[in-house]
Amino acid sequence: MSSEDEVKGKLADIAARYLKRTAGEMDELQALVGQVPAEGKPALRRIEVLTHRIRGSGAVFGFAEISTAAEAIEMLAVDQIRLPRIDVAQVAERLQQLTAELQAAVHRAQSPGA
Amino acid sequence: METRRFGVLGKVTALSKAAAKAFERVLYVDDEPDIREVVELSLGLMPGLTVKTCASGVEALEIIDGFNPDLVLLDVMMPGLDGPATLARLRDNPAAVDIPVVFMTAKAFPQEVDRFMSLGAAGVISKPFDPMALAQRVREIWQSVSHAVPRAEF
Distance (Å) from the C-alpha of residue B138 to the closest C-alpha of chain A? Predict the structure, then answer.
């Protein structure tokens, strides 16, 4: 086996670990979204950090659908943080929708061909 | 913080051997552990390179003098001290002022790239990157910088 093959094998292991951890983080993301109505921007910042990581790593490991779904959440959070005032109820509702899409993408990646 | 020294892997031309001999140490800074591991593996495809990784800009500032890297790869978006702030602090350190710094970012838009270069970056690598091609890209940047600004130890 060549060194490149070894690296590819290890990358596949890391990718599988990423997918498992990301699936586990969906509960954390749901909880953060649930905190938006009460906390507003601080909760949005934590959502930005979490989804930025999911997006970046997902793209590196070839999970394009997960990366795209996470990016949508991250961009929404970034845009809202920049606004002087936000409609937290409306933002939370949209975040719920996007989080459901991300969860579905993670589920599909875990069960390819299902 | 981790340090790994990689052996000679893959085909190496005489030219790249000469370049690799002088290009010996890279510090990679990223708060994301999976990506640190990927970058270590990727750069391990470059012969004879010692790669050290750490999880924050603060940690990088603490170890930079002892490790004395030939090049620093900096993630842009990190909690606490982000990439640009870490670069600014490195430039305040006489021992690190000349070390080429390359940003790695998911926000490699033209305006952002211009901003990073104006801050003194030697290059910008977009995320996502191809793990199998990262080593070559890093070496190209290092070669362009080392040829443009000769350093005594080269």
Answer: 17
The verdict on a CB contact (< 8 Å) between B79 and A49 is: yes
Cα four-point dihedral sign A28, A34, A37, A38? negative
How far apart are the two ends of chain A, measured CA to CA in Å? 32
Chain B residues touching A9 at Cβ < 8 A: none
Helix (H) or strand (E) holding B5: strand B2-5
A49 neighbourhood in chain B, CB within 8 Å: 79
Q: Does B8 touch chain A (CB under 8 A)?
A: no
How many alpha carbons lie under 13 Å from residue B65 in its C-beta half-sphere? 8
Domain ranges in chain A are 3-110
Tell the burial category of B72 from Cβ atoms under 10 Å away from its Cβ (0-12, 13-18, 19+): buried
**Which CATH topology does A3-110 take?**
Four Helix Bundle (Hemerythrin (Met), subunit A) (1.20.120)
H helix or E strand, kind and range, residue A33:
helix A3-39
Is residue A48 exposed (0-12), middle (13-18) or buried (19+ Cβ within 10 Å)? buried
> Does residue A111 register a pLDDT over 90?
no
Annotate B50-95 with three-state secondary structure.
Answer: EEEEECCHHHHHHHHHHHCCCEEEEECCCCCCCHHHHHHHHHCCCC
Parallel, antiparallel or unpaired: strands B101-105 and B123-126: parallel
**What tens digit of pLDDT does each residue of A65-85 get?**
999 999 999 999 999 999 998
* ipTM for the complex shown: 0.76
The string of pLDDT tens digits covering residues B79-117 is: 889 999 999 999 999 989 999 999 999 877 889 999 999
Tell me which CATH code domain B2-147 carries: 3.40.50.2300
